[in-house]
Design goal:
homodimer, 435 residues, mainly beta, Sulfite Oxidase, Chain A, domain 2, Immunoglobulin-like, 7 helices
Chain lengths: 435, 435
Amino acid sequence: MGARVRNSEKETAAKSGEKTAAEKGLLGRRALLQKALLSAGVAAAGASFAHADDDVGTNAPDWMKTPGRTFTPYGVPSKWQEKVQRTIANPPGRPGTGVSRTPLQRLEGTITPAGLHFERHHNGVPDIDPARHELLIHGMVKRPLAFSLDVLLRYPMETHIRFVECSGNSGGYNQAQPPQATSGEINGLLSGSEWTGVRLATLLNEAGVAPGAKWVIAEGADAAAMSRSIPLVKCMDDAVIALFQNGEAIRPEQGYPMRLLLPGFEGNMNVKWIRRLNVTDSVVDARDETSHYTELMPGGKARQFMFPMGAKSLILKPSFGMNLQGPGWYEVSGLAWSGAGRIAKVEVSKDAGKTWELAALTAPVLPKALTRFRLPWDWKGQPATLMSRATDETGDVQPTRAAWVAQFAVGQGYHFNGVQAWGIEADGTVKNVYA
Amino acid sequence: MGARVRNSEKETAAKSGEKTAAEKGLLGRRALLQKALLSAGVAAAGASFAHADDDVGTNAPDWMKTPGRTFTPYGVPSKWQEKVQRTIANPPGRPGTGVSRTPLQRLEGTITPAGLHFERHHNGVPDIDPARHELLIHGMVKRPLAFSLDVLLRYPMETHIRFVECSGNSGGYNQAQPPQATSGEINGLLSGSEWTGVRLATLLNEAGVAPGAKWVIAEGADAAAMSRSIPLVKCMDDAVIALFQNGEAIRPEQGYPMRLLLPGFEGNMNVKWIRRLNVTDSVVDARDETSHYTELMPGGKARQFMFPMGAKSLILKPSFGMNLQGPGWYEVSGLAWSGAGRIAKVEVSKDAGKTWELAALTAPVLPKALTRFRLPWDWKGQPATLMSRATDETGDVQPTRAAWVAQFAVGQGYHFNGVQAWGIEADGTVKNVYA
């Protein structure tokens, strides 16, 4: 076919003056074929509508009438999205200690933008000169080795999509009354990224682990020298020295220029700004595995070293702060994950756990990664209680909140993975409820 | 095990004073078991090193001696990464027209950070108020429909990792002499993202496509009213109205608040700021499918409507600007993709195409998505010519550059997918070569 050159852009723009009566799209009630959604993830739509006299074609909007802005070397979100931020919580006078949480309910898919990845710092974010940073592997090894960033960049790399979750995430569910806050404010110590780096086993094998070694003490280069004892078996399994997050160099608050990534293990062990790995035969009893990150049990004892995060799920749409706008079709959507592997299924209840339906899982379902689940819902305007319940490939099932709470001393909030519930009122208001 | 509370952080920090002699890690020559890399993606490492007297443990670095900075609502890359930017190219006096390219050789994995996704604008980036933007579906439909952002957010969503590539990408390879520039500067009109949105077929079915309809004219809400004719069959297949990119709302330069995503089709057709879809029985012959984005053939004809992007691959490590630092082990790594589906294999040649080896593909290998390939290379210091050749699941194989060029008139640069070559000189310098 020959090229037909004609300036059709002008013509097309002129068509903006057409008067076009258009209805407002909104899924008809008979629209969503649930079977199709569960298999292919898509539904055909029906044909009943509320409004019939829109006029969008009449005038071109202002932003089509003048040239837009130019190119940028590094882009940022729209100014209309400025409320989509991390929620910061830290004690007065201690700017480097605390957390910031990912606004999960504002996001979609399974990747967390690096700028919104949750933070947990113990003495602030260090400003590390990558040319002066080294990772030392020492202790019970045949030969201590120091790795500069330039050297690590020559090693074989691996890329995996993984979640990181703080073991204190969702700890607010240990309160007597359900916190009335957004899902991100309660559950936002959770993020998912594509991580790329060097398999730690490669480096440990190069150093030569001595017989009798059982632990690796990981230390960060922050002003807290944040340290944790890691089982050697995990370090020789799927642990990675991560250098890249979502394609680019790891962000400063995630450990620039390198962090330890222990897929499925509680966030605190994924030591950021990783500086030293001391191979030993015993644990170091660091502050963050004794005074913190241990689980208080009934009877005054504490449980130490609960490493993997359990099977868990959250409904994000709808959720607190996102009230329903009248009866009709909605998509119930959220995230599920497990530190033990892949999510096998997510069930959703719309009646406080009396009955459950299977949600569709967005492919690919990856191990130790966030999995998006979706289920259509034709809300008739009745009060309802929404719950989700994840099961992982090892058979681990999310317990009820009551069963979870009963295991621990009052106030223990680490490793919460109980079923969560949103109460929907007749006017569409969404509240956090214990059910 | 009971909790043992002790301030180990201080002890650990004190250990920074230890004197630890450490060698510099660098993979031994017998380290990389290629078989293991191809299967599991990881290699054990060997035991020969160059240096033996590092002293990294002697002193804690400066950044451990004072508290780091506080939390941020939305994070940005490290200041040490400020050179990792898009490369902007636009004509003098026309700030809204041109491209910016992704610095592919600086990135890893398969996801492009949204801030570094390539741009192609025809009259700048419009500043669209999402509350005033609507998508109109009209023309040969039973009922025209207008969709606000709020309404679309109630529809069933889908999430897919897909690439977008400008059909002019790598056009520089049509030059008589190989451009001496970075891979991103040559090939950076290519990016990969996790996109989430509403299947277009759902919306078209709701509007009700009339018999005889064959095309959909897509128009953007930019000041160029950028328009393309899209086959209806594609719109009813895997096309999506994308609202989210890498988890968050689409960035302004990618089409905020919504864009058309046509997986595998040339970038220009994935109309940003999508405003109208006019269902018709014929093409509109818009400027960007007549004067642009057509392929000049021998004999003065032009080929129009070459929609899908062909099977293609790039070696990014090493590449121009990233010279080898002496003999030893390196990882050869790059990206492969195809508009027709999944990548089936990537072969790498280290001898200008005489012999080929299979590279390892990073799982999951997804359709119409960037796939990372990796292969270890023990460079002995000899001059070498590196090439990669992708084959997709339909059997499409990257042609040689010479075969690709021979199809077209001199100077035609759209849809380049020929094999590319990096010449490695004995001193480690990497040059772009035609081989």
